[in-house]
Amino acid sequence: RPQVDGIIKERSFIEGSFIEAGSQLYQIDSTIYEATYESAQANLQSVAAKKGRYESLLKLQAISKQEFDDVLASLSQAEAAVKTAKANLDYTKVYAPISGYIGKSNITSGALVNANQSQILTTITQLDPIYADILIPVKDSMKFRSQTEFPLILVINGKEYKHSGILKFAEMFADETTDSILMRATFPNPDRELVSGMFVNT
To answer: For the chain, N or C: smaller number of CB within 10 Å?
Structure first.
């Protein structure tokens, strides 16, 4: 999701391709944010210069301590404004937070986006390793409680998957409607035989 408001100027990926973490995905129009950043920097320089002058005047007792403290407060505010403006400018470049396969783009160039909007820009799915979520009866889960890692075999359409997985954790509460506990395992998936959302047996 975007972190700032603006018009999408460019999409920088091919739908369905593998994306490395840190790759730029979208460019949001940065014109306003660049201007705001430059203005904040100029204001910071002005306040910093004023602080320097006031330091000299304070030594000469030409100004009060309160006046100098006010300048210091203004300097802190100006520094914070620069940091905020820089962060917003950086957010105009939307980067991939993880490596994985990217889906379709839900936004086209020229579209207006808003910070933290409900509509996602796109989805990146990590496939290797991949998680398998397993629901098992509470009575059967007790045997796994004392083990932090437990090997698992995956079965797809009656055929055993060639890579074994490791049970990583189990929820500490049961689903009251099914009297079962969710457990999560990780499986290597170098050949992308497993895809997000598919049903398997373990």
So the answer is: N
Contact in structure between 125 and 97 (CB atoms under 8 Å) = no
45-51: which pairs have CB atoms within 8 A and are 24 or more residues apart? 47/71, 47/74, 47/75, 47/78, 48/75, 48/78, 50/74, 51/75
Look at residue 110 and tell me whether its pLDDT is greater than 90: yes
Contact 182, 175 (CB under 8 A): yes
22 vs 54: CA distance, rounded Å: 44
Q: For tokens 């055993």, name the residue.
A: 160
Q: Which amino acid belongs to residue 119?
A: Q
The CA distances from residue 154 to 143, 162, 166, in Å, are 19, 8, 11
Q: What angle do CA 16, 167, 159 make, to 5 degrees?
A: 65
pLDDT at 152: 86
Find residue 160's DSSP bridge partners: 155
Mean pLDDT score, 108-115:
94
Q: Residue 189 and residue 193: Cα distance in Å, rounded?
A: 7
CB 99 within 8 A of CB 20: yes
pTM (2 d.p.): 0.73
